[in-house]
Amino acid sequence: MAVLSNEERAEITAQAQRSHECPGPLSKAQLRAVVDSMDTLWETTGAAAVNAAIPLPQRNLLSVREKYFLFQSMLDRKYKGL
């Protein structure tokens, strides 16, 4: 997966600002910096770390889309518990 486009990062920032989950003390520029850094981190280390954690042969049997779906499902469940 590629790093998100400038427009996609802007959409995520705007969505976060409209959400009741928006971090209150952050300015729009600060929130955007968080989105940018998290996206960059995911692409440089996060995706590879998650992929490496999947045992073989499952790692080779799952598509990238399936791996992302499973990871997102896990994050959603963890988030609901907060």
Task: Characterise this structure.
- The structure is a single chain.
- Helices cover 73% and strands 0% of the residues.
- The chain is mostly helical and 82 residues long.
- The chain has one domain.
- α1 (6-18) packs across α2 (28-53).
- The longest helix is centred in the middle third of the chain and has 26 residues, at 28-53.
- It starts with 5 loop residues before the first helix and ends with a helix.
Note the topology:
Layout: H1 6-18, H2 28-53, H3 58-61, H4 64-80
Major beta sheet summary = none
Helix content percent band: over 70%
| Number of structurally distinct domains | 1
CA-CA gap between termini: 28 Å
Average per-residue pLDDT, rounded, comes to 91
Envelope shape: globular
Beta-strand percentage? Answer: under 5%
What class do helices, strands and sheet pairing give?
mainly alpha
Please tally the β strands and state the result.
0
- Helix-strand pattern: HHHH
* Alpha carbon gyration radius: 15 Å
Counting H and I runs of at least 4 residues, what is the number of helices? 4
Key phrases:
82 residues; globular
Question: How do you describe this structure in short?
Answer:
This protein is mostly helical and 82 residues long. The protein is built from 4 helices and no strands.
